């Protein structure tokens, strides 16, 4: 069987089973089993494929039909033009989260001007694969190297296996990150961060069961935000300011319908000011950001 024939059969099987983006997923699996890029698949489309490779390919097609994300098969996901290793222990980084990174980068730029090369300490809370912390680190790599900016980045997660994945990704991307195994702020001993950024679990417990088969294959620990999806935002609202310098910042990814509720939680504490919401490329509310005013008393 040729590459071209294999692609058609795989794509047809996915379409028959109502799998979205069948063409893209078929291509990714072919690239993986044949160790070829997209251009090489086209150039060599008439080449024959060995029987054992065919069997592996169709085995993966079956996995995808049963809901396994392609990224967990290839152990690869691109995020902010960087390659990340992913497996069943971490969420798959999504394009929407790039908005969170971009907003954090903007604040770092402005903040660094005020601090005049003083060290800027950042914590990525609930880091998962490490994508946010590593993307921030890589964005400023040249400026750090040229001594134009001084960054110290920390990343934490409750999952030992997630931290192992994040460390692997930091090593693969040559990013200097300080990792902490911690249930939210439990093991965070630092109290002078300039910025805390987080994409915490925020899906309502009951809603998880109604999500696509692919999403349900991702770790529920990293999805489940409790009955109303706000459990982790409550913890952040009540504790984050204790670990952030006065006039430092907090940036949080949110669900499309959580703007008012998360903003309200932060306002209730009287420690977070200048709150604003940034929309993603689909015009959905995506990131809440604000400044910490530790002069105010928390109710």
Describe the structure.
With 299 residues, this protein is α/β, with parallel strands linked by helices. It folds into two domains: 3-66; 87-292, 3-Layer(aba) Sandwich (Rossmann fold). It has helices at residues 3-16, 22-34, 38-43, 51-65, 70-74, 98-115, 131-139, 141-145, 160-172, 205-208, 213-216, 231-239, 259-269, and strands spanning 77-79, 82-84, 120-125, 151-157, 178-181, 193-198, 244-253, 272-279, 285-292. The strands form two sheets. It has a seven-stranded mixed β-sheet, sandwiched between helices. It is globular, with a radius of gyration of 21 Å. The N and C termini lie far apart (69 Å).
Q: Whole-Å distance between the termini?
A: 69 Å
Judging from the principal axes of the Cα atoms, what is the shape? globular
Element order: H for helix, E for strand: HHHHHEEHEHHEHEEHHHEHEE
Helix/strand class: alpha/beta
Superfamily (CATH H level) name of the largest domain: Vaccinia Virus protein VP39
The helix tally amounts to 13
- Amount of helix: 40-55%
The CATH C-level class name of the largest domain:
Alpha Beta
How would a crystallographer describe the biggest sheet? 7 strands, mixed
Kindly identify the CATH topology of the largest domain: Rossmann fold
Instruction: Bin the strand percentage.
Output: 15-25%
- Poorly predicted regions: none
Tell me the total number of β-strands: 9
**Integer count of domains:** 2
Described by its quaternary structure, the protein is single chain
- Tell me the radius of gyration: 21 Å
If you average the pLDDT, what whole number results? 94
Write the CATH architecture name of the largest domain: 3-Layer(aba) Sandwich
State the strand order across the main sheet. 5-4-3-6-7-9-8
